[in-house]
Amino acid sequence: MKSIWGEDCLHFRPERWLSPDGKQFKMYDSYRFVAFNAEPRICLGKDLAYLQMRSIAVAVLLRHHLTLVAGHRVEQKMSLTLFMKYGLEVEVHCRDLTTILRSMKWERENESRGKGNSPGKGEGGEIGGGA
User: Fold this and answer.
1) Strands 90-94 and 64-68
2) CA distance to 75, 106, 129, per residue, from 121 (Å)
3) How many CA atoms lie within 13 A of 9 on its CB side?
4) pLDDT (0 to 100) of residue 131
5) How crowded is the C-beta side of 108, counted as CA atoms within 13 Å?
6) pLDDT tens for residues 56-106?
7) Integer Cα distance of 109 and 117 in angstroms
8) How far is CA 50 from CA 56, 74, 91, in A?
9) Exposed (0-12), middle (13-18) or buried (19+): which is 31, by Cβ within 10 Å?
């Protein structure tokens, strides 16, 4: 798929689908995604499929770090529904979310108290609050 996505098509670069400022999803020509067809016969479930893909990606990537298995060959198989020719073998590593959870807890506590300290620092200067 180098002809469509460029020389780095096999590299995981989610920013390729974002605008240069990183704030908006960049739309590509509908004919690039064979699985969803294109106007006037576009797949009715395309938008739902995109929503599900984004939701699952966010949920997985928040909690885990994925790395490609060494030596695994990544290749797309062309068909009506696109899938990986050899699958996509990855190693899943859990992320440490304690810092994020502490920060969220601190923000929630300070919102209820009406405090305005800088995010992540409590009254005693340590992350997560000074209680």
Assistant:
1) antiparallel
2) 46, 8, 6
3) 10
4) 41
5) 6
6) 999 988 899 899 999 999 888 877 777 888 988 999 999 888 888 888 899
7) 11
8) 10, 22, 24
9) exposed
Beta strands 76-77 and 90-94 are: unpaired
The region that residue 34 occupies, defined by phi over 0 for left and psi between -120 and 50 for alpha, beta otherwise, is alpha
Residue in 23, 29, 36, 35 with CA at minimum distance from that of residue 5: 29
Locate 23 and state its tokens: 């704030």
Token pair listed for 118: 């800088």
Please, are residues 55 and 47 in contact by the beta-carbon 8 Å criterion? Answer: no
Q: What is the 3-state secondary structure (H, E, C) of 33-78?
A: CHHHCCCCCCCCCHHHHHHHHHHHHHHHHHHEEEEECCCCCCCEEC
Whether the Cβ atoms of residue 28 and residue 4 lie closer than 8 Å to each other: no
Residue 124, C-beta contacts closer than 8 angstroms, at least 6 positions apart: 130
pTM of this prediction? 0.43
Q: Which amino acid would we find at residue 58? A: V
